[in-house]
């Protein structure tokens, strides 16, 4: 009796079953991280493959940018509030028994949508306070921008306008200067700078504020 053919057939069947039952290892599909902008809505769907779907996503380490959340189904969504660079450790777990899990480092950079900075910090010159700021637009949208600079008296809390600008700030505009200054009565003054950028098409408003850390003193009257 020739047993060669049955043995060969059984071996082939075992090999086929093993191949059919093998699972692709669980892995996270590499996707380039798009740029994020503070104050602008963001949405990115993460993807995995292999293992046993469905998958459950979570953050295993690091910190998400403030304003973003990661849902269990892998949606990285929200509106980041602050610029900066963040390193996050993502974790994905499959539905196997036992479950398989893997992690992956993700680096996210959030740029400033509206940036307001001192160009020349406010200074007292005799009976005047003068200074300048600069504004930048880090987005691809045009801002309807309003900048108001006020000196707030320490005793009466009365606000005196030192400067006002309202103009379109074009996309990717960098370091646009705005000067301000005025004579003031003697006393102490805290300088407030408020910048409000409206994006009508997106119905979005961005705000930034600067403030002197302590009152500036004018010793003589105008």
Notes on the protein architecture:
With 222 residues, the protein is mostly beta strands. The chain folds into two domains: 24-111, Immunoglobulins (Immunoglobulin-like); 114-218, Sandwich (Immunoglobulin-like), CATH 2.60.40. 8% of the residues lie in helices and 55% in strands. It contains one helix and 17 strands. Strands 12, 13, 15, 16 and 17 form a five-stranded antiparallel sheet that branches. Strands 2-9-8-5 form a four-stranded mixed sheet, with no helix packed on it. A hairpin with a 4-residue loop joins strand 15 (187-199) and strand 16. The protein is elongated. The protein starts with a helix and ends with a strand.
Give the helix/strand layout.
Blueprint: H1 4-21, E1 27-28, E2 36-37, E3 42-45, E4 48-49, E5 56-62, E6 68-70, E7 75-78, E8 84-93, E9 101-111, E10 114-125, E11 128-137, E12 143-153, E13 159-169, E14 176-183, E15 187-199, E16 204-211, E17 216-218
Parallel strand pairs: 2-9
Antiparallel strand pairs: 1-4, 3-7, 5-8, 6-7, 8-9, 10-11, 11-14, 12-13, 12-15, 15-16, 15-17
């Amino acid at each position: 009796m020739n047993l060669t053919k049955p043995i060969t057939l059984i071996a082939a069947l075992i090999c086929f079953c093993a191949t059919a039952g093998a699972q692709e290892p669980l892995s996270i599909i590499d996707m380039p991280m798009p740029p994020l902008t503070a104050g602008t809505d963001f949405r990115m769907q993460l993807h995995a493959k292999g293992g046993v779907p469905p998958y459950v996503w979570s953050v295993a380490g690091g910190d998400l940018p403030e304003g973003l959340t990661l849902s269990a189904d892998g949606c990285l969504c929200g509106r980041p509030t602050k610029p900066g660079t963040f390193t996050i450790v993502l974790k994905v777990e499959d539905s196997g028994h036992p479950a398989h899990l893997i992690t992956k480092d993700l680096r996210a950079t959030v740029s400033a949508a509206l940036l307001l900075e001192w160009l020349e910090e406010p200074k007292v010159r005799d009976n005047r306070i003068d200074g300048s700021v600069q504004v930048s637009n880090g987005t691809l949208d045009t801002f309807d921008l309003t900048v108001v600079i006020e000196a707030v008296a320490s005793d009466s809390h009365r606000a005196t306008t030192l400067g006002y600008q309202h103009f379109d700030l074009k996309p990717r505009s960098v370091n646009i200067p705005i000067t301000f200054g005025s004579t003031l009565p003697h006393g102490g003054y805290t300088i407030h700078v408020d910048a409000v950028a409206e994006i009508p098409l997106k119905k979005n408003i961005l705000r930034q504020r600067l403030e002197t850390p302590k009152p500036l003193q004018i010793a003589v009257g105008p």
